Amino acid sequence: MSGQVDASVVALGGGHGLHASLSALRRVVDELTAIVTVADNGGSSGRLRGEFGVLPPGDLRMALAALCGDDEWGQTWARLLQHRFDGTGEMKGHTVGNLLIVGLWELLGNHVAALEWVGRLLGAHGRVLPMAITPMDIHAEVRGLDPADPDVLTHVQGQVAVARTEGHLTGIQLDPPDPEPCPEAIEAVNSADWIVLGPGSWFTSVIPHLIVPGLHRAIAGSDGRVIVVLNLEEQKGETSGYQPEDLLGALLHHAPDLAVHTVLADPRAVPDAELLEQVVVGLGAQLVIEDVSMDDGSPRHDPEKLAGAYARIMRGV
C-alpha cells in the first residue's frame, strides 16, 4: 500500500479513465470527490435519459463502483452496480446501477442526495457528483470526413458520434453552452488541495469539464494543484494520431488559463520524452514519467501503481 495522504482531492472525468483514477485515489486519500461528465447519449444511459429526461447515469455509476472497497461487501456491490441485464426484452442492456440511480432520482427529486444515498449503501470511499445538473450534448468540429475536401470542417453531434468519429477533432462545444454546474461540485473544487484531470476519453470525458463555464472558472481560480494524467494509447476516433504533447495542446486550447502542476505519463506512451519535457516545462509544470500500466500489456492503468504515483506526487517525493 502507498499510505494515506492528508489532502482533499477532486478527480474529474468519466468512464473507464475516471474509474481507474478513482480506484487508485481511494487507496491514498481520505477526502475524495469525483466530478463526472454527464453528456452520454448512448446505450442504457441514453435510453434512460430519453425516457425520463434525467442526466445520463452511466458514468456516475462507474465512478461509484470504483469507490467501493476491496472487501467482499464492496466488491459484491461493485459487481452488482455494473451488472448488465441479458435477454431479449426491454430490459436487455440496462445495468442495475443505472436503474438504481434513476429510481432514487425519481424518489428523492435531487441528483446529489440520490448519489449520496447510493454511496452510503455501497460504503463508497468518497462522493460522486455530476459536473452539471443540466442535461447536455457534445458537439464537435471534425476535419477529414469529406474525401472530396479533407480540410473542410464537418459538424458532429452527440457523445457517441463524437467518440466514434474517424476524422480529426479540432474542438468541442456543449449544447446548451452554459449548463448549470452542480453547486456541490463547485464547492469541492474551491476547497481542493489537488485536482486530477484524466486519464480517459479526452474530448468526451476530460475536456467537457473545462467548457462548463462555471466549473471552468472554479478550476482556473482554485488554489488546488492540477495533475494531468495522460492516456496510455491513442483512442481510435477521438485522438487518433495524437502524441502526448497533442493531448496537452487540446486541453490548453479549451482552457488556456489552466495552471498545471504535474503531468503524469507512462513511459510506454511517451515516444519522445525530451519533447514532452520541453512542452511540460513550458507550461510551468513538472513531468513525471512512471510505470503506471498493467503488467499484462493491456492499455489499462494499474490501480496500485497509479496510487503510488499519486502519493509520491502529492507528498512532493
Structural account:
By secondary structure, the chain is of the alpha/beta class. The chain has 3 domains: 1-33 and 182-317, 3-Layer(aba) Sandwich (Rossmann fold); 38-130, no CATH class; 137-174, no CATH class. It is built from 13 helices and 10 strands. The chain has helices spanning 15-25, 43-52, 58-66, 72-82, 96-108, 111-122, 159-164, 183-190, 202-206, 213-221, 244-254, 273-282, 303-315, and strands spanning 5-13, 29-36, 127-130, 137-143, 153-157, 168-175, 194-197, 225-229, 260-265, 286-289. A 7-stranded parallel beta sheet has the order 3-2-1-7-8-9-10, sandwiched between helices. Strand 8, helix 11 (244-254) and strand 9 (260-265) form a beta-alpha-beta unit. Helix 1 (15-25) packs across helix 13 (303-315), helix 3 runs antiparallel to helix 4 and helix 5 (96-108) packs across helix 6. The two termini are 16 Å apart. It is found in: Cytoplasm. Belongs to the gluconeogenesis factor family.
